């Protein structure tokens, strides 16, 4: 099965962005520009819109960069920190590449009573299919999140907390608008021009 985004490239982009200032937006801006350089026509280098996201109790801001039926790429973070449940996905692997801050996590079902190694700037971790974690995202933490698999299976977890628990309809509406923009961009693009990698 072929995919358009390579986790190795995402890790390189992350490591190249670490250390850039966060307060003036340079860290996020340069990360997106670098992704657009690696994936011309796939990632739009122009600033997108931040959207509120709450899933599994984890509240933060998300910027959508790319999605298709088998892949998605976003930037997610929280200026003040947050914690909660990772979710359990049976049909998708979710990679996190930390740009700034720190993420602590633990396996919710293992016999271990100690946390997993912390995710630090420049680091990479993967929540494999069928697994679940508890996590703490420290203040000022921002990461690239890349999902590979059946993307539609993540939507109930991603939307139910925001819509039914928080009753935050506006965030769902804004997310739908951003998804729509990416979908139109994807369908306008000549797919034969985008690079592909084999898993």
Automatic annotation (TrEMBL):
Entry keyword Transmembrane helix: yes
InterPro entries, sorted: ERG2_sigma1_rcpt-like
Keyword annotations: Endoplasmic reticulum, Membrane, Transmembrane, Transmembrane helix
Localization, UniProt: Endoplasmic reticulum membrane
Main location: endoplasmic reticulum
Domain of life from the UniProt record: Bacteria
Keyword Transmembrane assigned: yes
Protein name: Isomerase
Organism annotation: Mycolicibacterium parafortuitum
